[in-house]
Amino acid sequence: MNVYVSDITLAVASFPLIALAITLPYLVYQYRKAGSVPWLRTFAVYSFAFYLLCAYFLVLLPLPADRSVVVPYAQTPQLVPFSFVREFLAETTFSLGDPATWLPTLRDPYVYEAVFNVLLLVPLGMYLRYYFRRTWRQTLLIGFLVTLSFETTQLTGLWGLYEHPYRLFDVDDLILNTLGAMVGFWAVGPALRVLPDIRLVALEAREAGVRASATRRALSFAIDLSLACAAAVLLGALNIAISTGSFPGGKWFGSGWLARASFAFFFGIVPIAFRGRTFGQMLLKLRIVRPNADPVRWYQILARYGLLFLFAWAPFEIAFGVGMLDVFAEGRFGWSAPLPSMEGASTTWVWLAFMALWIATLVVRAVRAKLRGAPFVMLNGVLSNTRVMTEAGVALMRKQRTVLDVDEVRALEGLIAQDGTPLSELMERAGRAVAEEVRAWVPDPAPVVVLAGAGNNGGDGWVCARALAEEGYPVTLVAPDIAERMKVEPARSTALAVFADAARNALPLRVLVAPDADVLEGALEGARAVVDAILGTGFSGEEVREPSASWIRAANRRRFEGARRAGRGRHRKRACERGDHERRGDRSLLPKAHGAPFAVAVDVPSGLSAQSGRAARPCFFADLTVTMLAFKPGLSSPAARACGTIRLASLVDIGPHLKRLRGEQDGQTRSAE
Ligand SMILES: NC(=O)C1=CN([C@@H]2O[C@H](COP(=O)(O)OP(=O)(O)OC[C@H]3O[C@@H](n4cnc5c(N)ncnc54)[C@H](O)[C@@H]3O)[C@@H](O)[C@H]2O)[C@@H](O)CC1
Ligand SMILES: [K+]
């Protein structure tokens, strides 16, 4: 037992080193991939790394001191399955009929080693299910492969580092370890109800990643600063090495000038050459842009960093003089060296006071930004009219600037159709885009409910349902009437075509026509995702008419109250009945019930006016809204929190069509005048 403890102690002792080594790459990776660094994921990653370290230490240590040592018992692999059971029965006093022998056997090495071997991979199974979202089959396979890697490492004496195996290759270990992974997989099941969904965490992180957080910017600045300092030191050393002796004073330039040149390179030339990105910013997917996300001009970059260095540097240079930086020439290091020799300490104080003031303004700005949920803007950013944004934020902001009125979207559709892409094709692309989002969320086929209205928004729903059914998802499509009786084109022909396809190819697609409340609730209960294709840009009015209203209410109930049989969440029910989740101006939304399906709205959540942004009662609450062609004005109203994350499905390159539309609009205004 002590062996285990000492291995784990060793792992604890060496983990900080590993943590240090993985932190920078982890932060960079996380910012690049997910956009921000949520604490839950970070905790999961670090604890997983720590666990793996422990596991490997337990399997491999202690290392024999001598590379050529022969450990007799480890030489012949143990290949008979379950021999530990036989040995245990043969060598211990254990007897099933005699309870007095039970307790002592627990302390028997055969038993605790077996238990240990099971426990070793229990955490792996837990991580695989919760964090990596693996199925039980994948967990079984991965658990087995990890065990196999342990055992082969032992069999080969640390891959040839030792001349002979020093630990025993044992088939029983393979069986018990793999069993442990499966135990972990099943044991974490109940916890999944309480733990936050790791995918939701990722989605939130992506959303948070649109904003360039102070940490992310500080990290990128630290990278650039390190590069500039390293280059300055290197150049300084080179300068001395090359020029010693050949010049009076032993060098070509003062190293102060080299430092300045190096800073000018990394903070001036590089971002100008790479259109607003320093190396650190490239690594962390940040960019210097104008406040409206337009590209910056070269002089704005110079102003941005010039001002920054003016604030931080100029008072310092004025106070200490240029020679101060000349560490190689002076043979002294750091700015503390000349302090005693200052002609009067007053300049030092001036500089320190200036720095303190500047840092204080930074802190105030940071706190204010945090409180208001606004981006953190530094004074040099204000003066140079530049901001640092994430690439995702820049892309989003540029797209969002093209906000089209609902009428304009309709006109645009007409122009696109004239140019050869009919509305039915747009509908096909729209439905598939929504299906893609559902699949990204629910990667393995699982029940999905599509609520499809009578208009073209419903048509998108039909396409989405077919796309998912083609991938094996059991889809329930809820429609107000049979497809033949739909009136709007191309929704009608699309629905008919989907219906025919489903029958011909035996797709797992079931259509419920005007189901009663119980049937609908039953369908929603088992769903992993629900698609709202009831009402889109064609919705108008203060109230939603039936049956759409009941459908929206049923979906919202499932979302906020949980499943009807769960018996929990009575308080939620009351809150829901009071309409807490719908109240306008109420900033915090009721949290989702556990196990509630992922809710995707097509184009706009049903009940929300895409034009005015007013939410009718009821209004569908979505996690994600996939809006078609362009952003609409209503999507940025306060009521638009019903949208969840908003994603744009471009469907076509609208640039040229938009130009034509705007041209035509101008022509009309002029002729009207
Ligand atoms: N913009 C685009 O490029 C595309 C748009 N398409 C979809 O088409 C949608 C627009 O289609 P439609 O113009 O047919 O309109 P919708 O399908 O959005 O809505 C029309 C239906 O809503 C009903 N309705 C209106 N007000 C109501 C109320 N107060 N209560 C209950 N029902 C009400 C109408 O009776 C009609 O059945 C878009 O939202 C989008 O999803 C896609 O099919 C293709 C591409
Ligand atoms: K909708």
Describe this structure as you would to a colleague.
By secondary structure, the chain is α/β, with parallel strands linked by helices. It folds into four domains: 2-201, no CATH class; 210-401, no CATH class; 405-421 and 654-673, no CATH class; 422-651, YjeF N-terminal domain (Rossmann fold, 3-Layer(aba) Sandwich). 57% of the residues lie in helices and 6% in strands. It has 28 helices and nine strands. The strands form two sheets. Strands 5-4-3-6-7-8-9 form a seven-stranded parallel beta sheet, with helices on both faces. A two-stranded antiparallel sheet has the order 1-2. Helix 24 (491-504) links the parallel strand 4 and strand 5. Helix 6 (122-130) packs across helix 7 (136-155) and helix 22 crosses helix 23. The chain is flat and about 100 Å long. Residues 322-344 and 584-588 have low confidence and may be disordered. It binds ligand NAX and potassium ion. GO terms for molecular function: kinase activity; metal ion binding; NAD(P)HX epimerase activity; nucleotide binding. It holds the Pfam family VanZ. It is a multi-pass membrane protein.
